[in-house]
Amino acid sequence: MLIEGHFLGDHGASNEAPALIGPNAVLQLVHAMDRRLGHTPAQIICEAAGLSTLPDGTAMIPESDALHLHEVLNCLAPTEAMGIAVQAGRGTADYIIANRIPRVIAALLRALPASLAAPLLMAAIRKHAWTFIGSGEFTPHTAWQFTIDRSGSGAAGSVPETTFEWYAAVFERLYQSLVGPDCKCSMTDASTASRTQRSYRLYGTAGASDALSSEAGALPQDSRIAFASRS
């Protein structure tokens, strides 16, 4: 009861409609916990986070469900939490590629040079950012740089670091699959950033290193690439 009281707090008490995100933010984290920790420890963590019943994957979920799950995971399995978040992020990206991106679009992106594929992919992600950012803010600066700001998510002063690592893993996997297999995504200011915001940069593909001073990383004003709505 002590654990539940600490982590659940006033979860669900607000009269305001909760910000929603795709169900895989929780489902893939649970799958990763099952693989790394075992089913019983994963179930204990879910229950402590107030998730005795998991989403069925057919509808958007409150973003607070994912944030609470990250909080409890960091507290009860601190040595495994980061690896679980990375694995969950990769799983989420794999799900998006398999189920939310039309095959013809994925094939087109893979056929294009990275200098063209990356801006198109980032523009499409920007268009659908509401499915993963909830009440936060997603700001793409170029095709190779973006910022995640979770200060609007109601977090009590900080956001679990695993949440930010999850974002990095999702983007890294998407870019590896659709832009270039050697792409990597890392936080550029993890040691000095605020507790609710991180900036990221993608590396690896030829030309990406020059995106900061080149028009090659500029995003199109409107992307014709459309994903299905849930992630």
Write the layout of secondary structure elements.
Elements: H1 2-8, E1 20-21, H2 24-37, H3 39-48, E2 61-62, H4 63-76, H5 81-99, H6 103-111, H7 114-127, H8 130-133, E3 137-142, E4 145-149, H9 161-178, E5 184-187, E6 197-203
Antiparallel strand pairs: 1-2, 3-4, 4-6, 5-6
Helix pairs in contact: 2-3, 2-5, 5-9, 6-7
Write up what this structure looks like.
Mean pLDDT is 84; it is low at 1-14 and 208-215. A hairpin with a 2-residue loop joins strand 3 and strand 4. The protein has helices at residues 2-8, 24-37, 39-48, 63-76, 81-99, 103-111, 114-127, 130-133, 161-178; strands at residues 20-21, 61-62, 137-142, 145-149, 184-187, 197-203. The strands form two sheets. It has a four-stranded antiparallel β-sheet, with helices on one face. Strands 1-2 form a two-stranded antiparallel ribbon. It has a single domain, classed as H-NOX domain (Alpha-Beta Complex), CATH 3.90.1520.10. With 231 residues, the chain is α+β, with helices and mostly antiparallel strands. It is built from nine helices and six strands, in the order H-E-H-H-E-H-H-H-H-H-E-E-H-E-E. Helix 5 (81-99) runs parallel beside helix 9 (161-178).
